[in-house]
Amino acid sequence: MDVPLTLAALGEDALVERLVGLLPVAGGAVVEGPGDDCAIVEGASSGDWSLLKADAVVEGVHFVPGENMARVGWKALCRAISDVAAMGGLPLHALVSVTAAPETPWTQLRDLYRGLAKAARTYEVAVVGGETTHSNGPLVCSVFLTGRVEPGRCVRRSGGRPGDVLLVTGRLGGSFQSGHHLDFKPRLAEARWLTAHFLPTAMMDLSDGLSKDGPRLARASGCGLELELEALPRRRGCSVEAACADGEDFEMLLAVCPDRVEGLLADWKRAFPRVPLTRVGRLLEAGEGLRPRATFNLRGYDHFQ
Amino acid sequence: MDVPLTLAALGEDALVERLVGLLPVAGGAVVEGPGDDCAIVEGASSGDWSLLKADAVVEGVHFVPGENMARVGWKALCRAISDVAAMGGLPLHALVSVTAAPETPWTQLRDLYRGLAKAARTYEVAVVGGETTHSNGPLVCSVFLTGRVEPGRCVRRSGGRPGDVLLVTGRLGGSFQSGHHLDFKPRLAEARWLTAHFLPTAMMDLSDGLSKDGPRLARASGCGLELELEALPRRRGCSVEAACADGEDFEMLLAVCPDRVEGLLADWKRAFPRVPLTRVGRLLEAGEGLRPRATFNLRGYDHFQ
């Protein structure tokens, strides 16, 4: 008898590819369907594009049971804001969908919503609705976020070209252990500054680790990839491997035309003196494949493996 | 020692009221925040308003484990479409967020997405993105749906006036037992016809049972409520109490100015000869409270009790 193919055996990327293949994704003024940090649709009265993002945090996966729920709420909304930032956009409206057990203390949801509210006020998001449902499983908080972006400032994963230099904001690694994943600040101001001054050819936010997300950006751009792993900006106490594979960094990974990199690095230092911007590799011709300059295997976070 | 207040002790409506009170819901061109079937925001280039809805189905709550997942997918999207219909709108774009255990067979998610895709094609919705996350709890499928509505055809829960007649489409009760909840057709065409010809003063979709949702519409409109429970259009084999309290009907409950009711009923019969439209009560002055004309207690579905 055949053993059924499980989600774990399939892995996250293959699963998503198969699922997307089943869906009607075109029509209705869709500029960009599944596959980027956000979907893009036409429609805002200003001529801006609308951005749409869904993102969930699950108890036992994205936070440990007993965690301070205000920090979980902050994370839940800021993850989605980070995705809007990665498209070059600004967040607008959120809906929050929570599934929780009936015996959950009220104070847990109160604190979750206080954290959501704090993030919403900080980044000027209006939380316009949502719903609560019971389950007997772990607490799940799904955030749906809309945003807007001027078409001329929209940055996708797919725009990178061979030779483009890859850079990352901030420092990588150990986010879960250090608690950074619960109080990170989405790189909204930084991304908006980038699209105003040095429009990257491609950009995405790092949620599953550079070793997983880097190849995703390269593939989306139809390019090969060389990562200079020893150069990675690491969080204190992190190995290169941890910086590469831990995930939950919520930093920006961007591709920039090589002749603009020096100017960018100089101007960046003046604009964001406390946030490193570090060269971590470059895009190659597609035929050149993936070239990690390191001795260990690349891996990253996979939701089903 | 104080016993902690649980979600079950609080109940769904009180929980939602408390949570909404914590959130920044204004700003950003918000026309209507939490509390109606959908949120309303400004922004579409045509001058239309945008509708935003989040809705989840949970294994063990909205469908039994082992259920045909294609039917679950149909339900997951159609629930949200029903909410857009209840505002008088048309659905546009959906995101789907699924949380599933790693050992879930691939075919379950495939079938879920086939059902989502069938509903999306039927009602011309583009599924533009989403995400998959693992958990060790029940399968959760959250749907985020956008829609649009002409401001002059938008119907809220809050527009009802004392004296307005309440009507429901279709038949009520036994939806879960009969399987209707898995293959119902959202009343999109019917609601659009209503807003074109007999703009209701208030409308909502019935998901938690008329005995729970009727008072919600009355409260939102600042009215009292009289329900003629014996007149309820019941699904075959259902008691009055079941028709009133079972929930998952996804029929429209609407309020109409009394002098337009006769004309509406006559025209409706020609437009939708196979769908009953039945008078089930009326709105009262606020001071008159709730008057069920029946001998049993009103109850309905509560997610936490």
What are the main properties of this structure?
2 domains, six-stranded mixed β-sheet, about 300 residues, Phosphoribosyl-aminoimidazole Synthetase, Chain A, domain 2, 10 helices
Describe this structure as you would to a colleague.
The structure is a homodimer of 305-residue chains. In chain A, strands 1-2-3-6-4-5 form a 6-stranded mixed beta sheet, with helices on one face. A 6-stranded mixed beta sheet of chain A has the order 8-10-7-11-9-12, with helices on both faces. The model of chain A has no long low-confidence stretch (mean pLDDT 91). Chain A is globular and about 60 Å long. The first copy, chain A, has 2 domains: 109 residues, PurM-like, N-terminal domain (60s Ribosomal Protein L30, Chain: A, 2-Layer Sandwich); 138 residues, Phosphoribosyl-aminoimidazole Synthetase, Chain A, domain 2 (Alpha-Beta Complex). In chain A, strand 1 and strand 2 form a beta hairpin. Chain A has 305 residues and is of the alpha+beta class. The interface between A and B is large, with 88 and 88 residues.
Nutshell version of this structure?
Chain A is an alpha+beta fold and 305 residues long.
What is the subunit organization of this protein?
homodimer
Please give the count of helices of chain A: 10
Q: Which percent band covers the strand fraction of chain A? A: 25-35%
Overall CATH architecture of the largest domain in chain A: Alpha-Beta Complex
| Lateral strand order in the biggest sheet of chain A | 1-2-3-6-4-5
CATH homologous superfamily caption of the largest domain in chain A? PurM-like C-terminal domain
Spans of at least 5 consecutive residues with low confidence of chain A: none
What is the level 1 CATH name of the largest domain in chain A? Alpha Beta
End-to-end CA span of chain A: 23 Å
The interface involving the most residues is between: A-B, 88 and 88 residues
Q: Count the strands of chain A?
A: 12
Going by helix content, strand content and strand pairing, the class of chain A is: alpha+beta
The Cα radius of gyration of chain A reads 19 Å
Overall mean confidence score, pLDDT of chain A: 91
Name the overall outline of chain A: globular
Please give the domain count of chain A.
Answer: 2
